[in-house]
Amino acid sequence: MSKFWFLLTIAAFARYAFAADNGLAITPQMGWNTWNHFGCDISEDTILSAAQAIVNYNLTRFGYEYVIMDDCWHAASRDNASGAPVADSTKFPNGIKDLSDKVHALGLKFGIYSSAGTYTCGGRFGSLGYEGIDAKTYAEWGVDYLKYDNCYNEGRAGTPLISYERYANMSRALNATGRPILYSMCNWGEDGPWNFAPNIANSWRISGDIMDNFDRYDDRCPCTSVIDCKLPGFHCAMARIIDFAAPVGQKAGHGHWNDLDMLEVGNGGMTFDEYVTHFSMWSILKSPLILGNDVTNMTNETLNIITNKAIIDINQDSNGSPANRLWKRSIDGGGDLSLWAGGLANNCYVVALLNTSPSSQTIDIEFSDVFFDQGKQAQSQTYTIYDLWQKDDSGSWGKNLGTVQGSFGNVSVG
Amino acid sequence: MSKFWFLLTIAAFARYAFAADNGLAITPQMGWNTWNHFGCDISEDTILSAAQAIVNYNLTRFGYEYVIMDDCWHAASRDNASGAPVADSTKFPNGIKDLSDKVHALGLKFGIYSSAGTYTCGGRFGSLGYEGIDAKTYAEWGVDYLKYDNCYNEGRAGTPLISYERYANMSRALNATGRPILYSMCNWGEDGPWNFAPNIANSWRISGDIMDNFDRYDDRCPCTSVIDCKLPGFHCAMARIIDFAAPVGQKAGHGHWNDLDMLEVGNGGMTFDEYVTHFSMWSILKSPLILGNDVTNMTNETLNIITNKAIIDINQDSNGSPANRLWKRSIDGGGDLSLWAGGLANNCYVVALLNTSPSSQTIDIEFSDVFFDQGKQAQSQTYTIYDLWQKDDSGSWGKNLGTVQGSFGNVSVG
Amino acid sequence: MSKFWFLLTIAAFARYAFAADNGLAITPQMGWNTWNHFGCDISEDTILSAAQAIVNYNLTRFGYEYVIMDDCWHAASRDNASGAPVADSTKFPNGIKDLSDKVHALGLKFGIYSSAGTYTCGGRFGSLGYEGIDAKTYAEWGVDYLKYDNCYNEGRAGTPLISYERYANMSRALNATGRPILYSMCNWGEDGPWNFAPNIANSWRISGDIMDNFDRYDDRCPCTSVIDCKLPGFHCAMARIIDFAAPVGQKAGHGHWNDLDMLEVGNGGMTFDEYVTHFSMWSILKSPLILGNDVTNMTNETLNIITNKAIIDINQDSNGSPANRLWKRSIDGGGDLSLWAGGLANNCYVVALLNTSPSSQTIDIEFSDVFFDQGKQAQSQTYTIYDLWQKDDSGSWGKNLGTVQGSFGNVSVG
Amino acid sequence: MSKFWFLLTIAAFARYAFAADNGLAITPQMGWNTWNHFGCDISEDTILSAAQAIVNYNLTRFGYEYVIMDDCWHAASRDNASGAPVADSTKFPNGIKDLSDKVHALGLKFGIYSSAGTYTCGGRFGSLGYEGIDAKTYAEWGVDYLKYDNCYNEGRAGTPLISYERYANMSRALNATGRPILYSMCNWGEDGPWNFAPNIANSWRISGDIMDNFDRYDDRCPCTSVIDCKLPGFHCAMARIIDFAAPVGQKAGHGHWNDLDMLEVGNGGMTFDEYVTHFSMWSILKSPLILGNDVTNMTNETLNIITNKAIIDINQDSNGSPANRLWKRSIDGGGDLSLWAGGLANNCYVVALLNTSPSSQTIDIEFSDVFFDQGKQAQSQTYTIYDLWQKDDSGSWGKNLGTVQGSFGNVSVG
User: Fold this and answer.
1) Known catalytic residues of D?
2) Is residue A286 located within the same domain as residue A382?
């Protein structure tokens, strides 16, 4: 699990800038998606109940705004005459436009799912070759967000150019609708979307699907790195995705983010501390924060994690810089310890220590590491330190722990 | 070698679905092929004798139905005028149509072989550029199955798209005949057919050709993984192919299977226990079960293995889910121990323990591993357990060993 | 850090020759670039002040001639009517042509920067699809040098041919202007420019951007080799780039060089000895020597390094042969020791010993290693030896240390 | 170094067959080439002197027939009007046709060199885009053999298809001349020519250029395998090329061979025993045997090696099957020991034991390894054994050492 601090000083020199075309996801998108908890078993009610719960729990106040209907909303086939997509009339008796209107009426935005292939991953009709009519239909339905998957792509992968062209087709189709639709690419990191997608998409998945587990290796997620991984698979444990994310953080920025996959907080496969780590690391790596649990039925623990405003503020910080991993050290007995730090707006920094070993670890953390990027001056300053998982006197997250200089001494992480 | 159990409980949540176009191989195909035992030395008699033996031994009752004529059935060249394929008139004096009719008359189906290249692997004329006329001719001959190889492909490999296009050409040609012809791709896993082939083929080979040996490393099968292997080769030992199959099991399902290559059971290069392992693992990984021995001359041991109905039933289970490897542990002295489990229909599971080390191993197997995918509830249930390689009182495979809960304690595997 | 010697004897047999089209960079280019020190914070004054300093310090006498304006010189957009590139009128109130004239008036040459993508790395308009008008405009502006980057390339990478075509477009456009413009490719080594670029460019970067640090591993430069690296990144420590350069030295020669990236000497992240190593190794590997510090404000130490004429002469030697690494040995406690040697004109050789371990090392260096390429006769000759970092009686670099035969005995490197 | 034996029994079951189009190199080609000894320093005299020496030494009797003029025979440019290739008129005052006639008059065949690129490796004009006129001119000149290199290929590599098309262009052009011209591809193994070239070329190089050294690692030959090597380079030590060849032997056969590069026997960089190993291993791996020494000036040792008829007979054996490596074992102290065996015509086998460690090794060699491919019957037979590097009573190579069964006991290899 992790330790998190929040520090004050001067921001660093930014290497990459970028101007997004659709003006969306200036900070990482936040919302909720049906897949992780409900899979294919969705209906109008699933989505409206969740939307209502989001409102009831005041999650919108924290930034959660997109309600995303993932796979299996489809009828058996497209409309024969027009080729337009059609929803399953049993699950969605009032149609998608009606559903979207109701979601909008709750003050939320509405997202949909398709795949850049012949079929979706769930075997429904895909959008390959139907990008224009699908984007147009989504716009008519009032869709604000598209998660666009990679199944059954008919071999159209293997070089960045081949993947780019397939995904750019939908990007152009979405732009052509005139409606701002957040474009969330989900090609599992194939061919390096961090290289080719920054100006066609608002975010891109970097790996195979997340598994609701802390760090177990699973053969179905066989690659040891997302760089040139030829079988992203699924069942990728949470901490493995963090490890995957380390080298590609450099590629994210305003309007174009690395997507570490939807959150598992609240789904039951991890402990409270593990979910704290999960939510925190997703936050500082500037992943979209898309809830994946049943929001109509949450424990206080779950609610506490997903409404930690201090952590969310880091994710939504205007600087838009993912934290960088300063070092990673193998621990005898398995797992590793790693130090992460990132620059925020207003002369602030976030620092995290991640422990995936089975035992508690105690170390000193040197400012020469924490502020390696910022240089010697930053390394010798005095900082005010806040622990973002403790509450201050008013009950808000982020307790002032006093000041530090040179190092954090004797930090223990369980 | 392996231990096999069969358990009863509730099935898991399926990630991938799919609808095949030709309606074939809803469960993995079963049959017999000339290559492993006879190589190029085949004739009408080879095939008809085998077909007759399959009937005599009642193998059809167990599901073996395709009789497949592999390489070297060809005349020296195609028909000059039409370009149609022509059979060797010495080996097949009555032609292929006649042979096919005779096979059909025995209640069996008939398969043929070609290569997506200029030549077949045996140097006969290949189908590259002749897909249309070849598929049409096969249909006229009454062919029910095509094994389609990869030799002499004129460099048309290296990206999924290039390989896809070469193999999709034959898929479309077969579909265009109107005759249902099972399409068995054999491109040795190049460019990841598990990614690009699920909706053009009923099965795809994942590796170089099998060698009739348990686990010997051979330089002619040099890759350590089938993911992005650039030289699949041949002489791949049986247990190496099992290892290759672990990460790609996730890609198989109804109508589209990973093909671990034809069986060597009965060909003499392995012990009885090793062949038991071979047949069992092919079964639970949902590989096609294509016999490769001389079925006209079988020992009782061979016959016992290939007619274990309990094992075959797992292969043909309607759930269509390959077993997954839960863990793999290196053994001092070489080889490894691995645990595999898979969900079946009707609340059943199959569990196998594979030992490739030279010594006997004894361990506890925890239900937290076996039912990792199914979660905590499944891990705490009580199961009825059957050993599929023991016989019950009626002499059928699958002996009831009582119930288990929490773990299998002290399992020994020789 | 390194030890350097300079020896006298007969030159070796050259494997590769080449004729460059534009007649430039017969020896590696030398100059100064804004990026490493100033980043995006540049203006007319930045460049003119540096140019004036180069003249004042007499750096031209040592060969520094190109003054290169890196990223962020751009206006918000191209000229609407013509599509021609436009400079930021605040930073460059007199325009680029005027700036170029002033640089020329100081006896220097003027370089500019763009990217073979939709945007530059700093988010300004890129040249992809605008190669013709950009090259033409640069020529009109009196540009003598183009550094051509790789950001936002719309997926046009992944095979040598795709990258080649993108970069050859600009090469052809530059040639078409009729003005000799040195073409400095910066695609970070993707797809192996040492293979595809020798006759379209004068130099090519081999890795991600340099970091002003001796040898720290940084996750943002994740590849362990530049051969087939799919994420070159940035923050590549100096000694890591030396390691990257070892296998590709064979590909450089007159008019086509491996670019190890711009120098960090004087920027403060390394010690004096480390900068000596940096400058020396860049020199013997025949990298372009492009200063990256603030030349208007240099310490004597910095000045001493960048004006070591003996070292520069090796870089500019007419033989054009990068030094080769003869061996590399891991040192207990981390880092390694490596021996480098290269043939020069006039029967001379350069020899260097590089120590990246934390401790001092003492070894014998055998001539059977130093002159491995030259063979037995060269290994048994007597050589006059000069230490290029010591001064002779006249105060020039390169002190005669006497003669050696068979080996350098007991060499210590701190 | 190696031990070699020659055994008698029944041949194995062949996996791959093939029919070459030009009818050449049914067994691996033999001859002499200018490059390894003379590099660019060649002339009419170099070639004619060598040709005369080949005749004088009666090397033709052993099968050496091709006299190949490598790089640097070219004039500064092609013929302006026709585009046809032109030779250097100083080096070749009588032209190439005259030279070819003289070589033919000596009873030898004549080979030439070009590159599938803009330039040759030596910087002369290449054949890319000039395949037709070059092939036609070569045919007019009486050329019998083309070595076709890979330098300056303008990025046309990276997938098998791209490389195939570039090399197939010349193959087609050579066939179109009507003159049988042996086509020796030299693309250094890029993109796997063993996969794509068998029916367009008679041989293909598998690695970077050979270095006249037994086994020294050199950074200029950085790949650890030829499978998917992206920087073949040069300076590849002899024993490293043997290691490279092990997995690709399976791809060679009549008319299409793996080329391990030209021989260094006699060039001075290895000992007698090392050259014996070099020549023997090239032979049993069915590499073309192209001398690379100065045949006008040979020691008796060199002559003895290159005229060992027993070894040459194995290379030229009508079976055309490269030996296979049965095992490779690391030796403490560095290097390894490996066992190789191959089937020959007339029930014979060749067996070799290769030791690259610095010390002598003594082991038993089991027939279960030697005859692994042939199976149990072959493993239990009795064989007559000949040592091919000892002479029999008549002075011919191949001394009968008696019979063996089960194993070679206590074999020592120095």
Assistant:
1) 149, 209
2) no
Q: Where are the beta strands (DSSP E) in B128-286?
A: 145-149, 182-185, 203-205, 210-211, 236-237, 257-259
Provide the chain B residues 260-319 that lie in CB contact (below 8 A) with chain D. Answer: 268-269
pLDDT digits (tens, 9 = 90+) for D3-17: 767 665 433 333 333
What are the DSSP E strand ranges found in A22-71?
30-33, 66-68
B284, B315, B346 - which closes a domain: B315
Instruction: Please state, as a whole number, how many other Cβ atoms lie within 10 Å of the Cβ of residue C141.
Output: 20
Given its phi and psi angles, is residue B191 left (phi above 0), alpha (psi -120 to 50 degrees) or beta?
left
B75 exposure class (CB count in 10 Å sphere: 0-12, 13-18, 19+):
middle
What B326-335 contacts at long range (C-beta under 8 Å, 24+ apart), as own/partner pairs, is B326/B369, B326/B370, B326/B372, B327/B369, B328/A219, B328/B246, B331/B355, B331/B357, B331/B359, B331/B361, B333/B357, B333/B358, B333/B359, B334/B358, B335/B215
Instruction: Indicate whether C21 belongs to any domain.
Output: no
Per CB-CB distance under 8 Å, the chain B contacts of D340 are none
Smallest Cα–Cα separation from D326: which of B263, B39, B235, B335? B235
| Closest-approach residue (CA) in chain C for A198 | C152
The proportion of chain A whose per-residue pLDDT surpasses 90, expressed as a percent, equals: 86
Q: Residue D23 falls within a domain, yes or no?
A: no
- Among residues B315, B349, B370, which one ends one of the domains? B315
Q: Among D277, D151, D301, D149, which Cα is nearest to D213's?
A: D277
The alpha-carbon gap from A121 to the nearest alpha carbon of chain B, in Å, equals: 6
Q: How far is CA C30 from CA A66, B14, B212, C60, C68, in A?
A: 54, 62, 63, 9, 10
| Active-site residue set of B | 149, 209
Instruction: Check whether residue A227 and residue A338 sit in a common domain.
Output: no
Residue B253: which CATH number?
A: 3.20.20.70
Task: Report the distance separating Cα B264 and Cα B192, nearest Å.
Answer: 24
pLDDT of residue A142 exceeding 70: yes
User: Is A119 in CB contact (< 8 Å) with chain B?
Assistant: yes
Give yes or no for residue B19 having a pLDDT over 50: no
C247 touches chain D (CB under 8 A): yes
User: Are residues B163 and A155, on separate chains, in Cβ contact within 8 Å?
Assistant: yes
What is the number of alpha carbons within 13 Å of residue C112 lying toward its C-beta? 29
pLDDT, one tens digit per residue, over D303-362 is: 999 999 999 999 999 999 999 999 999 999 899 999 999 999 988 999 999 999 999 999
ipTM: 0.94
- What total of structural domains would you count in chain B? 2
D366: domain CATH number is 2.60.40.1180
Residue D215, token pair as written in the block:
């086994």
Kindly determine whether residue A119 and residue B18, on different chains, have CB atoms separated by under 8 Å.
yes
Instruction: Supply the range of the domain harboring residue A190.
Output: 30-315
Please tell me if residue A199 touches chain C, with a CB cutoff of 8 Å.
Answer: yes
Q: In what order do the strands lie in the sheet with D2-8?
A: D324-330, D336-344, D348-355, D2-8, D382-391, D397-405, D407-413, D361-366
Q: Are strands B289-291 and D397-405 parallel, antiparallel or unpaired?
A: unpaired
Residues of chain C with pLDDT > 70: what percent? 96
D residues 47-66 closer than 8 Å to B (CB)? none
Residue range B372-380: mean pLDDT, rounded: 91
Which of C151, C158, C233 comes nearest A161 by C-beta?
C158
